[in-house]
Amino acid sequence: MTLLNAYAEDAMGAGEPLSEEVQDRLVPALRRVPDHLVLLACDGENAVGLAICFQGFSTFRARPLLNIHDLAVLPSHRRRGVATALLAAIEAEARRRDCCKLTLEVREDNPRAEALYRALGFGAGSAGERSVQYRFMEKRLVSSA
Fold this sequence. Notes:
The protein is of the alpha+beta class. It is built from four helices and six strands, in the order H-H-E-E-E-H-E-H-E-E. It has helices at 2-9, 20-31, 82-96, 111-119; strands at 36-43, 46-58, 63-73, 102-104, 125-127, 130-132. The strands form two sheets. A four-stranded mixed sheet has the order 1-2-3-4. A hairpin with a 2-residue loop joins strand 1 (36-43) and strand 2. 15% of the residues are buried.
């Protein structure tokens, strides 16, 4: 939770910590999500990096895919290869699961992260033979509970 809160508080996150309610619900809720993947990068006994991924499915390829939902490294450990190591572990797991691709979203105002992803082979998606840019969109739903 410390790592996720550091990510949430970062300028590339929400700029504030997760609410107490979210912190209380998160781990039990993640445990109920099938085919999730949570990886921690450690420096000795201390967790310094985090990746949270969810398996999806590509209807165009009729195979699973793995979406990198969160990738965070503590500021004190950035530029030390932690994110690269996490991404390599994610790719290895995706290959083990016979996934056809990895997906992720990156903020337009985060050129360092985008440069890392591009250096590791991420780029525009494709529809058949042509490359296309996909735009992340959302519609927030208010809980009735």
